[in-house]
């Protein structure tokens, strides 16, 4: 029988004190110094409050960790930190075939019950869902850290703008072509990095993303440089969603004899985007169960063992880069037609970091987790607009907490279980 451990109040107080001092050093310059015009004002109330909360929290954690009940409670709160995947049960969910159709029906009805502002927010959230699904193929399934994914996003957006400006191509023509073009760019990136892993791969992909942005920024005669370029809105069988026809078609409201509303354009973009996202979710889910998806997961777990089994790592890496880039290019087309105007400042490294945060927070390889994280990280800042200046700080804190609490993400990977049928007697 083990003796009860003696609780050291002094140790808990020291841990809380030093944690509070560290928080004060970190948050003091960020939230304590406010620039008003040409003067810097000291507002130490906020950093002191944050440091006090951190000190109290650290004191309580340190005190609880010295008791058996406290350790047991914290273990339940944090959860198991084991790696790997969870094997799903053979029993199918009771409401599985009821929940999914209801979610699809609710998603189709959503644009008709919310206002224009929130509809635009949801469209942006759906675009990030598409981007998260694409990057999840590269990072979550294949295990290759890509910090330049925004480059494929930019390729898709500028494909629509340049195609309409120089070749008179519309939304529906560019949509598949942008996916193919982004996939070719993914192959171009994949060839030089076949032998790279980890940090080296991340640096090269980061450089690729910055190269694309700088090229778009400096090609003034073609892309418009910092001035940007306009992108055409989508059409439906020649019907335009503008007050007056600009592409040689017929306005949507005149054809149906209804009053004009600027919401028609966003409702149509949302419905098309929602269908594309649903098809992409189905495509990625099926792909994970196919030999290609299994090869990606094998490459992620151990490349040497993967190659020893006879799997061509060149084909596997290139297919992952091309598939992920294709999804990013399609998302870029929707972003361009939704905005109506694009410039290189929309495709900075922060966008790549945001998409990577969606994949990591949602769960590497988890489709449902990526969807949840994308919706939360895009809609929540709009709800908490008063704290917009702390957005990056909140992202960093969320990443740190997730690495401590859920290192495998919000929703871990679940591998499908198969039953072995016994031969008939």
Looking at the structure, what is the overall shape?
Answer: globular
Tally the structural domains.
2
| Structural class label | mainly alpha
Strands, total number: 9
Termini separation comes to 54 Å
Mean pLDDT across every amino acid position: 82
Proportion of residues in β-strands: 5-15%
Order of helices and strands: HEEHHEHHHHHHEEEEHHHHHEHHHE
Low-confidence stretches: none
Whole-angstrom Rg: 25 Å
Described by strand count, sense and barrel closure, the largest sheet is: 3 strands, mixed
As a percent range, the share of helical residues equals 55-70%
Please give the order of strands in the largest beta sheet.
5-6-7
Count the helices. How many?
17
Helix-strand blueprint:
Elements: H1 9-31, E1 33-36, E2 39-42, H2 45-65, H3 68-78, E3 86-87, H4 96-109, H5 116-141, H6 150-166, H7 171-190, H8 198-218, H9 220-223, E4 229-230, E5 235-236, E6 239-240, E7 250-251, H10 252-256, H11 263-289, H12 291-301, H13 303-308, H14 313-339, E8 341-342, H15 349-362, H16 367-383, H17 391-405, E9 414-415
Parallel strand pairs: 3-9, 6-7
Antiparallel strand pairs: 1-2, 4-8, 5-6
Helix pairs in contact: 1-2, 2-3, 5-11, 5-14, 5-15, 5-16, 6-7, 6-8, 6-14, 7-14, 11-14, 12-14, 15-16
């Amino acid at each position: 029988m083990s003796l009860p451990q003696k609780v050291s109040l002094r140790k808990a107080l020291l841990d809380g004190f030093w944690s509070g001092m560290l928080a004060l050093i970190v948050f003091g310059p960020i939230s304590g110094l406010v620039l008003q015009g040409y003067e810097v004002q000291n507002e130490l109330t906020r950093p002191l409050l944050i440091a006090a909360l951190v000190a109290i929290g650290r004191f309580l954690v340190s005190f609880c960790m010295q008791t058996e009940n406290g350790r047991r409670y914290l273990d339940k709160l944090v959860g198991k930190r084991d790696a790997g995947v969870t094997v799903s049960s053979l029993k199918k969910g009771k409401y599985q075939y009821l929940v999914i159709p209801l979610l699809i029906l609710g998603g189709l009805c959503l644009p008709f019950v919310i206002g224009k502002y929130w509809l635009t927010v949801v469209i942006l959230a759906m675009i990030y869902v598409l981007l998260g699904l694409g990057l999840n193929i590269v990072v979550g399934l294949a295990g290759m850290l890509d910090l330049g994914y925004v480059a494929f996003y930019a390729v898709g957006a500028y494909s629509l703008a340049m195609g309409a400006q120089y070749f008179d191509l519309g939304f529906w023509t560019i949509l598949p072509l942008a996916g193919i073009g982004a996939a070719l760019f993914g192959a171009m990136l994949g060839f030089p990095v076949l032998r790279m892993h980890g940090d080296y791969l991340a640096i090269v992909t980061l450089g690729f993303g910055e190269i694309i942005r700088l090229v778009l920024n400096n090609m003034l005669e073609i892309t418009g440089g910092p001035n940007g370029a306009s992108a055409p809105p989508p059409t439906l069988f020649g019907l335009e969603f503008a007050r007056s026809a600009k592409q040689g078609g017929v306005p949507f409201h005149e054809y149906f004899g209804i009053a004009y509303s600027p919401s028609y354009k966003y409702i149509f973009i949302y419905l098309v985007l929602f269908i594309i996202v649903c098809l992409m979710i189905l495509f990625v889910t099926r792909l994970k169960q196919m030999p290609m998806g299994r090869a990606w997961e094998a490459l992620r777990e151990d490349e040497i063992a993967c190659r020893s089994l006879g799997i061509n790592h060149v084909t596997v890496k290139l297919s992952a880069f091309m598939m992920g880039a294709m999804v990013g290019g399609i998302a870029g087309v929707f972003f361009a037609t939704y905005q109506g105007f694009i410039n290189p400042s929309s495709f900075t490294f922060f966008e790549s970091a945001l998409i990577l945060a969606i994949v990591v927070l949602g769960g590497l390889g988890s489709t449902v987790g990526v969807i949840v994280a994308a919706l939360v990280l895009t809609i929540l800042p709009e709800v908490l607009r008063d704290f917009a200046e702390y957005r990056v700080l909140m992202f960093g804190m969320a990443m740190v907490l997730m690495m401590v609490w859920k290192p495998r993400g919000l929703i871990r990977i679940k591998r499908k279980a198969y039953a072995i049928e016994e031969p008939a007697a």
